[in-house]
Structures are given as structure tokens and as C-alpha cells.
Fold each of these.
Amino acid sequence: MDFLANLQLGFGIAFTPFNLLMAMAGVTLGTLIGALPGIGPVSGVALLLPLTFGMDPVSGIIMLASLYAGSMYGGTITSVLINTPGESASVVTCIDGYQMALQGRAGPALGVAAIGSFVAGTVGVVLLMLMSPLLARWALSFGPPETFALMLLGLTTVTGLTGDNALKGYMSMVFGLMLAMVGFDIISGDARYAFGINEMLDGVEFLPVAIGLFGLGEVLVGAEQVTDMRILHARYGIRDVMLTSADWARSRWAIARGTVIGFLIGVLPGAGPTIASFLAYTLEKKVSKHPEEFGRGAIEGVASPESANNAASSAAFVPMLTLGIPGSATTAVMLGGLMMWGLRPGPLLFEKNPDFVWGLIASLYIANVMLLVLNIAFIPLFVRALRIPYEILMPLIIIFCVTGAYSLNNKVWDVGVMLVFGVVGYVMKKLDYSPAALTLALVIGPLAERALRQSLIISDAGPAIFLTRPIAAVLTLLALTAVTVPAVRALRQLLRGRARVPAA
Amino acid sequence: MRRADLIAGAGLLALGLAFSGMALRRYTYWGPTGPGSGFLPFWLGLAMAVLAAGLLVGAWRSREPGARWLPEGLGLRRLVVVLGVTAGLVVLLKVVGMAVGTVLFLVAILRLVEGIRWTTVLAIAIGAAAFNFLVFTYWLRVPFPVGVLGF
């Protein structure tokens, strides 16, 4: 069976000392980044991407993927002990996690999150491993029209699902696509929108934009907040995080349900761990025999969303690896990384770079084991890191943004771009725009344009080609639905004369 | 927020129209074989204009001023200073070099803005500059800008 041979190849790569070291660095940094409020997995991946340029791509992706998985574990610590989410996929964990901590049950809350994360993360990787090759093989038959329709679907779902304001989400997406148009056009050779500036001829580089939006932008949002975080005194040594059999009986099925829902949501292009965790919590409350305990420290309210976000973070790799469409903002940044390493994302990745794909899959298994140990035995260490004041952390992150942006081409220009997009990111966040949609559009914009133009060249009937080929038609219709539903709703509100005032 | 929406709506409406106009005038909309380099930009500019017009109309018709989105007082001061010092670092990067720039930047923020003790500030600043040097210059061989002082 070539399947087992592939897995063996993967583990052979993942078990080399350097790659194990990268996985270890990834999970540790990831847990830390997940735990620290104000910096999440997207910023972490964007900031660490420059470090991977000198590496083999497989070592690079191992570090970034381990970081992503680690941040899903780490976010819980802050939610439970401080009642502030460390990153967005752990927002919902605050509700019952913090209540448990107030009742002196911080240990079991952290324990069930670690175990649930491990189960869900591992099952997620198994499903990723089984599903991706089949999906990739199916996607090999895609021509330009299918590819474009798929990208359109990815863009519209990301935009529709992130942020509360659909109109501003679409504006962010279109802005990202406009930025993607800048620079040399590969087909005609026109230098578009470069205004005679040499640095613009190569287009707007994705990395300084991502570092600006998610690194500097987030830090600026944090800088204006004068907060004082109180860490709850609690016991979270190894013995304290062990579950009683009553706890286990209650959380077992919650973990299973969280895993399933998390994976299903995560596979969708555009819907990532955050949405998965919210849906899992809602579902758990609905099926629970004692819904009244939710919000008062129900262990299922921690187990289910924490499992869901890990399953979703594994699942997000499915569309990214097989179709070249990222499933979340973090995988969008990774996809940008893939291109910078010189790999072509898409269904051919499995055939052309099996070492990359299988090395990544194998290392995700290893990362989850490392994370289980780390999050059972070393919680006190991460809690200590939470005591580093934000005033000290903030300027250090900014320095990292500057060096990261500079190291891309060794040009101060890129640092300037990073700075500009830091301000843009700050304003976007404050005004309910979607930096994630902008980033995704910037990454897949050039690919989408090429697919669109190729489709129209081979078409005899203009844009109708997207509706006459069956797979393309289904994808296009789904994408159109994703656009029209919020549009119709907004229009109806506008006609009624009471336009929605977005919440601040 | 309402005023911010009005400004953003007007600005992006103008940007969209200009983007579309430039696509038609400077680039090819439809070439001999198919869509040219101006095809997608034209439609994107138009889409932005329509969306921005929607935002503009919505904000125009809404009576409420909406929540404040810019911070006030201490928060605003910190935001402006942090942004200003960062911009200063970017501008001066070529003159002072990365190592000195890192130290100056951290001293400025930690000492002047946050008022942390000098010993702590210097330890962090020198530690960070050394870490940067080890990782980027020594390990990754990124040629950081060196300042007039030669490092």
C-alpha cells in the first residue's frame, strides 16, 4: 500500500533531529503565543515566517504548523485563569472555564482542554491524512474554470464568516484583490499601478503586509488599552489537572462531538477554529441534559469547544494542501509562505512534493503528543510567562516586526510597507473591517486572476463557462449564494430606512 | 464611527472609480485572445465603488453618531508615541543601523513611555539587540543595515 509507504516517508522526515527541534520550538512558541493575549496564531506565523527562509520548506512548515496547533492549546490557559481569551478560538472557553477556575477547578478545566485538544488534534490529523490524497486526486481534474470558482468560493466564505459586518468584509476583500493587481502582469507584461516606483514593479509583497496587519496592527490595538491583568491563584500542577471519573464521564462525548463538528467546519474553505469553537459550544448546550449549568462552570463547555478548535486547525490544512485554498486566516499566511518557499500550492503538491506533505502530516502527530505533555506537565511555566508585562512585550514584538519585514529582501522599503499596513490594520480592526479577508485576497488574487483569464480565453460563451461545467457551476452558485444572502439582507435594511449601525 | 464611515466610504468610492478609470485608460480591457491586463482591475474598482457607495449611504442615513473608535487620554497618547517612535526607527534605520536602532527604540519606549527602571531597560535592550544579531545576522545571514558607527 503506498499509503503506509507515504506515512513512513513522512515519519522518516519528521524524526530527523532538526525537524524534531523545529516541532519542539513550534509547539512551545505556539503555546506561548496562544496564551499571551494580543498576539494570536496569525501574528505568530507571520512573525516567524522570515526565520524559515533559510530552511528546507518542510522544516519551515513543521515549525509553523506546530505553532498553529500549539496556539490552540495555549489560548485555553489565559481563558481559564484570566478570563481574557489568549486568541480568538478560545473566546468561548472563557465562559465556563473561568467559572470553573473561580470554583477552584482550574486544574480539571485545563486538563480536559489538553486531553480534548489531543484527541481532537490527533483524530483531525488522521482524517486529514485519509481525506487529502483523495481530494487532491479529484481536484487534479480541475481546469481553470473550476479553480477560479473554487477560489471565488474561498474568498466569499472567508469574507462572509469573519467579522460582524459583511459589507466591510467584502470591502476588505476587494481592497486585497486590488492590491494583488499591483506590479507586473505575467500575461501582458504591463507594470500595473506601479506609478514608476521600482519597488512596486514586483507587486505588493504579502509578508510585510501580513506582518503589518497582524503583528504591528494588533500591538497598536493593545498599546492603547491600559489594562491590568489579574491571574487567578489556582492549582495546576500535574496532580491537579487529572480528571475525576465523574468529569471524564461528562466530557467524553463532549470531546467526541467537538472533534466531529470542529473537523467538519475546519474543512470548509474559509471557516476556521474560531467559528468551530462557537458552534461546538452551542451544540453542546443544546444536547446537554443540564443546559442550566452552562455558564456556571460546566466542564462540557470547556471540553467541546477546545476539542473543536484543535480538530478545525488540523482540518484547515485539508483545503490548503489539496486545493491551495486556505481554511483560515492562519493557513492563508502559511499559503503565502508556501509560495515564498517556491512551492506551488494545489492538487499537484501531493505528487510533486510528497516529502513536504507527508513530513508535515507526520510532524502534526508528533506535535500533538508534545503538546499533550507540555500542557499537562508544564502549565506553571506558561503561567509564569503570562506575568511578563505587556509594556515590555509590546516593543519587543515591534522590533520583531521590523526585523522580519526587513529580512525578506533586505530593503527598508518593506519595513515601510509593514509600518503603513500596521496603521491600516489598526484602523481596520477598530472599524470592523476584516484584515483576514484582505490577506487571503492578496495571497490568492494573482492565482485567481490567472484562472479567470484562462477560463475566459478557453470559453466560447464568455462568463457562462462558470455555469456550464458541472463542478464549476456548483462552486460558483455556492459562492454567489454566500455573496447574495448578506447583500439582500443589507439592502432590505437600507430600504426600510434604518441602516445598521455596527457595534464598536 | 459614523464620521469614520463617511470618510472611508467617500475615500474608497473615489479610489474605486480612479482604479477602474486607470484600468480602462492605461491597460488593455480585452486583447486579441481574451481578457487583458485591465479586465479584472476594471471590475474590482467598480465593485469597490459600489460597496463604498453602500457604506456611504448607510452611514448617511443613520442618525446615531455611533461609538467612538479612537482612544482618548492616556490610551491615545500611548498609541501616538508608540507609532511615532516606530516610524522614527524605520526612517533612521539606514543611518543608525539595526543594532543601535533596536537599543534606541527599546530605550525610548520602555524608559520614556513606560517609565521602567534604567537597569531593566538596558538589560532588555541590549539582550534584544544581541538576540537579533545572533538569529538574523549570524544564523540567517541577513545583512542588516549597519549604521555610521560601523555596526
Note: The CA atoms of residues 35 and 68 of chain B lie 45 Å apart.
Amino acid sequence: MAEVKERKKEFKTTVDGIVVNRVYTPADLPEGERDSSLPGEYPFTRNIMPTGYRSKLWTMRQYAGYATVEETNKRYKYLYKQGQTGFSVAFHLPTQMGHDSDHPLALAEIGKVGVAIDSLQDMEELWGGIPLGDVSTSMTINATAPIILGMYIVAAEKQGVDKSQLMGTVQNDLLKEYIARNTYLFAPEPSMRLATDICCYCAQNMPKWNSISISGYHMREAGATAIQEAAFTLANGIAYVQAMIDRGMEVDSFAPRFSFFFAAFSNLFEEVAKFRALRRAWAKIMKERFGARNQRSMMLKYHVQTGGCTLTEQQPLNNVVRATIQALAAVLGGCQSLHTCSYDEALALPSEEAVQLSLRTQQIIAHESGVADTVDPLGGSNYLEWLTNQIEEGIQKYIATIDEMGGALEAIKNGFIQREIRRSAYNYQRAVDSDEQVIVGVNRFTTEEQLPPGLLEIDERVAKKQIERLKSLKRMRDKRKVSRVLDEVRQVAKSDENMMPVLIEAVGAYATVGEISDALRDVFGEYKEPSGL
Amino acid sequence: MPSKRIRVLIAKPGLDGHDRGAIVVAQGLRDAGMEVIYLGLRLLPEQIAEAALQEDVDVIGLSCLSGAHLTLFPKTVELFKERSNKNVLFIGGGIIPKKDIPKLKEAGIAQTFGPGTPISEIANFIKTNLGEGE
């Protein structure tokens, strides 16, 4: 029989991804290596829970925030009305970077990529009319996470809700900041101290709170492949677990409240396999490396965001299709929580219309597609199981390399992880430039551009408004109390005491994000990472 | 036409930390034969202007994805021009809505190159426009 010509010489899952064969059979899954665990059974490949989405759908959690607390509070209420089931706070860059809105570096950035939060007063108003004891809130905050978590705790207290009742997460993942996201403030050692301060404090005081969201999403967005995303995240996870153990914490006392955050890109099978491989790999790490005994310490819980960098400015409606495929991959992969990007997000923060459609995407998958009605529906596919094994192997190889270097922190300091990601990013660019990697609407199937109507714009008046709020707050508060508590912040920073109690006190006195961060800068200094380029 | 290698400074003003594009462009322009200085992140416009002066570059590439470009890019051009008469080529990238491009051009940014731009397009633009500048 004449050989049938194929479209390409070689098919890969993604640029620098896994080579894909024509067809997969049981022969591709060696007898001895078959994983026949059921959902809810170690190593949890198929799902951490036996009933999956049959008992509870994933949390529909749209990352949102812009301008001031007034606009964001309104958007949060809108999202809830449209059926979202968890909150996710986007803070503007100054808050993330420990600056108040009146700082020189802050002025151009006020309210542009998230809500402006300078003080507890802002945090209290952010949640006006939203009962913090009844909702789950994820806050994407890292270097200034201890301060922001402190504000959330006090804001809840003022609503009459004790911190032991609070449900949610702080991202609090400094390692990936050095690798890819770049909102670190201090050097790695003080950063790890602050991060583990949060984890210890939460382990002891906030049983319903996830103290960290160890993230691969940002590394993937920076150009990492699926295997790199998975491997580097787990390597960072190992570093955090070890850091907690080094502080004298028993692994089962905190690991059940470690959570993760991954991307979902468009190669559906690669993504589903990635999530399954991650569950299996993490379970083994927790049991074998760290001796966890509580099953919950071994269960990988994670939030997913559909791939932001896959969205195109060209032909924005194509992005609806991309987000749908990616959301489907996340659900087939068994995520606990999901954000779907909006079609206008290559151009701006999502408009109301666009974000409504993002939620509808999740809701249609949940209620009309049937994929949530049985657990791990793709399990047993020869291709999927083979791919899961390939990704797990890739994860293990990288972790072994990083172990040899002395762990994730060392691999970051010597630039290994950053170099791997940058190489993948560059190869991807070359593949797109040469049309080897097709991006529909960008390098093939192009048309005349048309902007979608009603793009969200951040008014220049927002900056003025926020600066006025800040000035007014500084006039009204007890200056001496603030000054005293900032001294205490410095004292505690110099010691090895957990910083959370003094930070809670500081935010309660209405010390600002910038003031508290500056007090920490006084002690830890600000870290300037060499770019290595 | 300049016979020595074209010198390019790439920098990110403001607080935005998304450096994938800036880094890929830096590497791409190096592969295209240019000398590229990647200044990094979290820079004030004055720091970029000062470095560009010290390094005597021919091109300054600014990257911003946080929506702060309308303030930061023109400010950087202004501060550089205060320091130097050299006819440096300014280019920009990141998330820049089309409607902002005329304002940026008025402020001295010759061209912006957003996501999806082939590196060769940027390299060719630089080579073509520098030839005219001299």
C-alpha cells in the first residue's frame, strides 16, 4: 500500500513539546507501569476526590479588579450575580510592589491592572456589602502578601467574622516571582521568611485558608513548555515544604492547605495529561520525600487560568474559541477552580459583556456538555495515559537536575530555570516567525482588523481620586500610633518572630502599604536581580 | 549607513514585570547582528535616559504592558532629549491600543511593535530608519 503523506514531518504537542505518534495502543503503556488507581486513591492521578464534580463543581473564579475600590466592588457584585462562585482579587502594580499611589513609580500605574489598595480603609470598602464569612477569596499578592492578608483579616474582623472562618488563598509564591513574574521586593532569604511566616500563621490560625498558591501559570506565560511549567512549580513546592519543615513545622500540619495554580493552553490532551501527571508526581513527592501521612497532604489542589498569552489582538472573537478549548482542558483535567480569560483581554481589562461570556463558557461546559458528570472521563485513552507518563517522566528529570543543584532556590540563583524558560520562549518566537507554529488570525487566515466596541478604559481621574483618598486618610489617622507601630514592624523584621501579628496591628492603625513596605525595606533592603542577559 | 554595529537599549519603565517580549526582542536583535543592552525592569524614565546617554545607543526600545505607556514613553523621550542632541530612534512594544499610537508618535516614538510582530520586521525597521537618521 502506498504511504499516505502527512501534513507535517513531525507532530509535536507544542513548540519544544512532545513528539506525537500517529496512533496509540495499549502496547504504548508498559504492563508494569500501568496506573490503575481510582479517583480519590493515591496517587490521585485521576482526581483527588472519588466523586469529582458530581458532588461539587469547580469554583468559577474570575480574576478581577481595576481603578478604585468603588468600581471593583461593583464589578465583584456583577460577577457574583452572573454566577461566579469565588472571588479573585487583582491588585494594581503599586500595591503589589509595596508603593502607595502617590509614589513616583506609582503615578502612571494607578488602577491600571488591578484595584488600588493603599490602606485598610480601601480593603474595608472593597468588601462593602460582601460578607467575608460566606465567600471564598483568592488574592494575587506576593511580596506584600503579609500586609494584604493582614488587611483582609482586619476587614473581616470589622464585619464580625473571625479569621478562623475565612476561606480563600493568598498567592504568596515568591520563587516564581524571581523566575517569571517579577514582583519580588526583597532578596530570596527574607522573602522565604515572610512567605513561611504566612504559612505558619495560617496553619495555626486559619484552618480554611490556603496559605500559598504555588504557581506555574506565570512561568508558562513567560514561555515555559508544559513540562517545564509542571516541573518548576513542583520544584518550588518542594522548596516551600522543606522551608516549613526547617522551621519546625510537621508536614501534615500545613501541606493540606498548600494549593497550586496552573495554566491551561490550547493543546487539550497535553494539558489534561499535565494535570494528571502533576497530581501523581506531587502525591509521590509528599509521601516518599516528605513522609506525609495525611492523604490530604498528598492531594494536589489547584486553580487554573486559561492562557492569557494565547489571546490575540487580531480577530478577538477567536479568543472565545481558545478560552473554550482551554477551559474544557482544565475541567477534563479536574481543577478545583477556574478563571476563563475574556475575548478582549489582549487589548484591555475585560468589559462587562466580555467577562459575562467568560462565565457563560464555564457554565455551558458545566451544565450542557456532560464532561462534569463522570470523573476523569478521558482516563483510559491510550494517548492520554501515554502522554501522562511522558510528562511525569519530564517532571522527574527536571526535579532530579534541580535537586543536584541544591534545590529550587539554587536553581533560581544560578539562573538555570530562567534560562530554560527563555530558551523555550525564543524557540516559540522563531517557530511563529517562520510560520511553523500557526496562530490563526496572526500568521495565517488574517483579515482586516476590527476593534471590538466598548473596551474598558481606566480614566485618568482614577489616579486623582485615589491620591485624594490617601491624603484624606493620612490626615485623619493617629500619626503617632502609626509611627510607633512602624518601629515595631522594623523590630520584628530584625528578629525571627512571625511578622503576621505586628503587621495586623500596623494595618489596623491604618499604616499604608507603602509605609509598611518601606519599613521592611529599611531592614531587608530592596533586591535588584541581575537580568543575566 | 553606519558601518559599526547598531547599538540598542531595551528597557521597561514603570512597574510592569512582564519581560518575555522585551527579552525575546533583545535576543532576536542580537541574532540580527546588533549590540543590545537589556537594562531590565522597574526603571524611572530618567534612569533609562541616563543609561542611553552613557551607552551612546542608536536605538531605545521601551516595553510596557500595564497601560502606563502614554505617560512613561513620552516622558522617557523628553528626558533623553534634555540630555542629548543625538538623533536616537525610539521604538515601543507591549500592550499598546491602536488609538494611542498617534499620541506616541507625536511624542517621538517612531513605531510600536506589539505581540505577533516578527522579529525581522523590527530589525528591518531599525536598519532602514537608522540609515535615514544619519
Note: The radius of gyration of chain A is 23 Å.
